[in-house]
Amino acid sequence: MDILHLVDRLEELVNQSxxxxxxxxxxxxxxxxxxxxxxxxxxxxxxxxKAQKVLADRDRLLAQATEEAERYKEIARRERxxxxxxxQIVQHARIRAEQIAETARREAxxxxxxxxxxxxxxxxxxxxxIMRVLQQVRNGILLLRTQRGNRDNDPDESNA
Length: 160
Description:
With about 160 residues, the protein is mainly α. About 90% of the residues lie in helices and about 0% in strands. It starts with a helix and ends with a helix.
């Protein structure tokens, strides 16, 4: 039987009992009172067992929930660490990529500069050679014109 029901019956017994005049005391039926008390004695251990079972269940559920929360926290920590590691790897990769790109830019600028210098030197050399050849061509033309002019002016060569 439910302990609260028995307490209600006990209260009902007190309320139904007769008052002793000029006092705050009541006359209670002893048999009914003893019967309710006996039922309470039997009921209290049952209620206590139920309460202990509820407390044990609560403690077990609390332990499970705590264990599960710790597992989730550990999983979250591992994922966080993995993300942080990946971020660091990505950051290092970006820095390394920038370093490589900067080195490539410097090397490319050096190659372009060297290429420009080589092209300038080659063109200057070619210009010198072309100027030398042009001068030889001019000298040859001038020589030929001079020889032809001498032949045109030389009477011996015209009659022969």
